[in-house]
Amino acid sequence: MDTITGDAAGVPFTALPPAGTGGGTAPLLVTWHMLDAPRTDAAFAAALPMAGVPAWRVHLGMPLCGSRMVDGRLDEHVRRARADALTEYLVPVVRQAVEEFPAALAALRDRLPFGDGPVGLLGASLGGLVALEVLAAPPVPVGPVALVNPAVRVATGVGLLEAALGGPYRWTPRSRELAAELDFVARAGDLGIRSPLLLVSGEQDDPTLRADAAALVAALRSRHERPDDVVLTTVPDLAHPLAEEPGLQPAPQLPGAVAVDRVLTEWFARRFAHH
After folding, report:
1. What is the pTM (predicted TM-score) of this model?
2. Number of domains the chain is built from
3. Residue 253: which domain range?
4. In this predicted model, what pLDDT tens digit does every residue of 167-185 receive, in sequence order?
5. CA angle in degrees (0–180, nearest 5) for 49-61-160
6. How far are the Cα atoms of 14, 29, 226, 246 from residue 74, in angstroms, in the given order?
7. 90, 202, 67, 110: which is closest to 147 by C-alpha?
8. Each residue's pLDDT tens digit, 128-140
9. Which helix (H) or strand (E) holds 80?
């Protein structure tokens, strides 16, 4: 069966069928891509196909991305970031992605033969915050989780945008409150103690993102019922993006993406093997 594309309750998606099942019933793995390259569901599916995972890999499009870009351009991203990087841009994108997930999942269930077992989650960069928010209040049982170069504290994302926007972010009591709601190092206790979690960190990713990743893993291991199921893996030479700019269309895998794809495939294949 070939790749399936479309939209589910208004959310664009790219679905890759599990190998060896003829498109039959299999577990479900849902992903959310980064706002860096690859920045669409189709491009993310090409960067991280995870072909050896015996599950449907459904890559959901993030708000303002792909077919939901305003006028087919990234200008709206820039406008919102300049208006207020946290309250007008990062937080609304994460919240919309989380809020639209249950309806998208229900629509996907009508189209794809995935089972009723726990759903796997994968988030990259800002998509990592979406995956963590879903894990904190899951609409369905959650199985294995993986994060790639994730933002796990939205405040760190704001800090990374400051240089691009040409000045320091002006914090307010409201923006600090919103930032605290999307700080999963502080909220590690909300993430449960059962789902296996893999965090993939690029050796050349931003140091603040890498520090947050290590802090999240440490916080989760201290609470998890099986601490060895919380794993931090560093990929040598990997920077933050997983594809070349502009990252809008499917493209051949970069070496770093090949390495990440191998790690993710092993992680999810092992945990979906006996569904």
Report:
1. 0.96
2. 1
3. 4-272
4. 899 999 999 999 999 999 9
5. 95
6. 21, 28, 42, 10
7. 202
8. 999 999 999 999 9
9. helix 75-84
